[in-house]
Amino acid sequence: MAHPTDPTDGKRRQRTRLRVGAVALLAAVAAGSVIVAVQRDDGPDAADGGTRFGVLASQCDPVRSRELSQAGVSVVHVDLRWDLYHPDAPAAAPTYTQQVFSMLEVCRDAGLDVILGLGTQYAPEWVRALPDGRFIDQTGTGNESAAANLMFSVDVRDAFERYVSEVVQLVPDGSVSAIRVGTSEAGELGFPAEPLESRNGRNSFWAYNDAAQTGAGLPEGMERAPMPGWAPGDTEWSGSEVTPDDAGAWLDWYTDSVTRTVAWQIGLLQGLGFEGDFHLPLAGRGVLPEDRASAVQALLDGTGDRDASLERGLYYPDQLPAIREAAPDAVIVADITGLGDASAVLARGESPPADTCLAEDAGLPLEDTPGVADWAASRWTIAVARSAGYPVMGENPGPPSQPGTGSAPNSDSLREQLRSATRYAEDCGLQTFLFAFEDDLFAQGADVPLSVYADTIRALEG
Q1: With CB atoms 3.0 to 4.6 Å apart as the test, which of 96, 229, 266, 314 could cross-link to 286 if both were Cys?
Q2: Percent of residues in the chain assigned helix, strand, coil, to nearest 5
Q3: What is the rounded average pLDDT for all residues in the chain?
Q4: What's the whole-model pTM score?
Q5: DSSP secondary structure string, 321-333?
Q6: Angle at 453 between CA 450 and CA 456, to 5 degrees
Q7: What is the structure's pLDDT at 407?
């Protein structure tokens, strides 16, 4: 995880806004959101129909839904909570499921496209207590987040399959256009991040549960660690010197574990009959090529890890093409979870400014292009996603005053985020922009009331 003042801000977006009400119990937002795939050609995603506008963390409240639609919003994101769905055992809580069903009906009937998050970052405690259910780092420390170990625990995957099969059967017909897939503590791509204050100087790589190291109990299609027992930074393993090639092979296995798990999620949902799109929330820029090279040369001792992306196993130039190859029949949309984040604020000050997309970005030899470290994280990630053939959408980080949203103290104000992030969405031809959050549009004395968002939408569409 990036330090709160780190301009690269790794986007650990634990956006929790749980509301318990007669209509909506949930609406907790995770890191990044999902969105409907509209354009599927090789050009800019919004080239024909323009950018669509939506909100994160919708409550699907009847009054709000009507007002959002009138304001020009056509897409909403709703996140389930696995822990509320299966609170004590693999049996659904009937009150919660009925509330979910009602929410989705309300938004569908209001003409809003609903993008569903599965809430993997809110795994029940009984799931995390399953064999290999928690992420463990090389020091034997367990990750304290509520993310369950979908990477390396066959028991967790079994529990997830039961949960997802029930969700797919629950949703009202025509109510869900896309489902988000992810693995981290924020529901995004990658291993979980660890709060800076909990790190105590260590670099945590979350692949040291028994199954990952020994292979016993690994889910089908996963592989065990190539050097069992080796910890990043160690110069020897099994009596032999560890080389940069060895460290690079280990890192490839680590990042590939993320790829395989997301591909498994997509295949599972397709097998259950879900015919909508899949959305892949991407935190920050991940590891840059030059940083990967220096990290491997230093045997992954922490060198080159700008914002804990290395430990989260995020290397987009390899992962994004691999996920598309693993799921060739799926429509997968890359979700850029930090349009207008702190890295964009700094990139605006470059000469020339490096905060927004240029037409030639996706055609550059990105792994060899100098100066990409000075780009906004969103510019880099959009370019990598486009070069891999993904449609792309995006969202602003959220209020700087609210910890855990993906913003930082040096981020733009919420009103300035609306201005800059929607400009980036237009400049980059994104198919959809989601505003963070629905609550902030309706709050008393809101910095960005719904009327301001509506004016922005009308101006951009006009």
Answers
A1: 314
A2: 35, 10, 55
A3: 88
A4: 0.89
A5: HHHHHH-TTS-EE
A6: 155
A7: 67
Determine the length of the chain: 462
> In terms of CATH architecture, what is 52-461?
Alpha-Beta Barrel (3.20)
pLDDT in tens, 94-150: 999 999 999 999 999 999 999 999 999 999 999 999 999 999 999 999 999 999 999
The pLDDT tens digits of the residues spanning 257-315 come to 999 999 999 999 999 999 999 999 998 999 999 999 999 999 999 999 888 899 999 99
Structure-block tokens of residue 376: 């906004």
The Cα 74–Cα 72 span in angstroms is: 6
What angle in degrees, to the nearest 10, is found between the helix axes of 450-461 and 414-427?
Answer: 20
Check if the beta carbon of residue 259 is closer than 8 Å to that of residue 319: yes
pLDDT score of 46: 57
303 vs 282: CA distance, rounded Å = 22
Residues 6+ apart with CB under 8 A from 16: 28, 29, 404
Q: Where exactly are the structural domains of the chain?
A: 52-461
Q: Strand locations in 85-174, DSSP E?
A: 113-117
Half-sphere exposure of 252 (CA within 13 A, CB side): 10
Six token digits for residue 93: 């809580």
Closest CA to 368 of 301, 293, 295: 293
Higher-confidence position of 45 and 125: 125
What is the per-residue burial (b if ≥16 Cβ within 10 Å, else e) of 7-41? bbbbbbbbbbbeeeeebbbbbbbbbbbbbbbbbee
